[in-house]
Amino acid sequence: MGNNPKKKQPWSQSIKGPLSFSLILAIVAGGVGMITSTGGSENEVRVDIGLACFGIAFVVSLLVISVLTMASKENDPELGKGTGVNRSSANPEKKSKD
Fold first, then answer.
1. How many CB atoms lie within 10 A of CB 48?
2. Angle at CA 86, nearest 5°, toward 74 and 96?
3. Angle, vertex CA 86, rays to CA 82 and CA 91, nearest 5
């Protein structure tokens, strides 16, 4: 139990991909929010609204990506070999005889 070797995760399940994508999306959202909230060239740039757009876009995109990653993750093959009524998920109608 305690000496399981760590498996190297593929790039699609590592944290670098979702963080970099969320950061790029948040920078774009912050820039667009900052520029569009000024209301013209005579007004000053609204950095506070840009930072709020940045934070919201970063958190929301990171949450959506992590949920989609968890939904597409394959189960470990050892999970089908339980100790319950059905010992293997490959033969659900076959009952164990203990």
1. 11
2. 145
3. 110
Range name among 13-17, 22-26, 45-49, 86-90 with the lowest pLDDT average: 86-90
Q: What is the pLDDT of residues 45-83, one digit of tens each?
A: 999 999 999 999 999 999 998 888 878 767 677 666 656
Q: Identify the burial level of 60 via C-beta atoms within 10 angstroms of its C-beta, where 0-12 means exposed, 13-18 middle and 19 or more buried.
A: middle
**Residue 28, SS3?**
helix
Cα 69 to Cα 17: distance, rounded to the nearest angstrom: 11
